[in-house]
Specification:
The chain is mainly beta. It contains no helices and 11 strands. It is elongated, with a radius of gyration of 20 Å.
Amino acid sequence: MKKYLITVNEKQYEVEVEEVKTATSGAFKNLKSAPKMKTGVSPDQIKSSKPKAAVASADGHKVTAPMPGSVFKMLVSEGDEVKQGQTLLVFEAMKMENDLTSPADGKVVAVNVAEGDAIAAGDTLIVVE
């Protein structure tokens, strides 16, 4: 088995591919294809390819995912007071754990992810006001 990381519509998938050996050289074995999607992907579901850092807005500082990955550990919850530079969550990307820190002092007003959630580059994860 070989493992590959494949990106489709800016979403990453880890796939395993089995090498097929045949008795006669040059012959190939037909493999089943992946199951078809029940519904299509709308343009609204396609994420921007531009990763963003924290963005200040009228709703506070939005802490966004700098790259695709998954949330490994949440360190804050809604209502928590945080300081600039404090680690808000740890996410896993490219087999490494990465910290996301608060861009400013304030209060966590929104937490949009939970441990184990998949995240895409540019997703708003936490809002600090």
